[in-house]
Amino acid sequence: MERVLVSACLMGRKVRYDGAAKTSGDALLATWREEGRLVPFCPEVEGGLPIPRPAAEIEGGAGGSAVLAGAARVLAADGSDVTNAFLAGAQSALATARSFGVNVAILKEGSPSCGSLTIYDGTFRGRRMPGIGVTTALLELHGIAVFDEDHIADAGVRLRELEEG
Predict the structure, then answer these.
(1) Which structural domain, as residue segments, surrounds residue 153?
(2) Are 54 and 20 in contact (CB under 8 A)?
(3) Which of these, 21, 38, 104, 159, is most buried using a 10 Å CB contact count?
(4) How many folded domains does the chain comprise?
(5) Model pLDDT, residue 40
(6) Could you list the mean pLDDT of each consecutive 10-residue stretch along the chain, which spans 165 residues?
(7) Threshold 0.85, pTM exceeds
């Protein structure tokens, strides 16, 4: 049975920067939870950041790949550099995915860790732009397909493909 790495906030865990959850009511996700497929994970918490914590964005909206390459930083709204925590969280997510044989992840859209289509532009003005988060970039670099909470059905298609081999 294929396992799925999933953002802990989508599973109702209060791990987001503001201390809240973003619980998904998706039926397929609920089915996978009942089947024991899901591996909940929060890279920011695993990287050592507290709950709650200041919001963070990738400098200049550069994206997670630039952070992995050392060409951009992740900055918190208070001006502190939290890049190392984001990198540590991404590495921990990859290690967890590997330990469970995960090939598919469902991560929270817009997050500087987990965004797979959009991230915030680095100005802390609530503006999104195309891009991926640090954890998404690392997982994709290692062949793990990442989907957001609005594309769980697409993740299901990928899961079936993997299981049918």
Answers:
(1) 4-164
(2) no
(3) 104
(4) 1
(5) 98
(6) 97 98 98 98 98 96 95 97 98 98 98 97 96 98 98 98 93
(7) yes
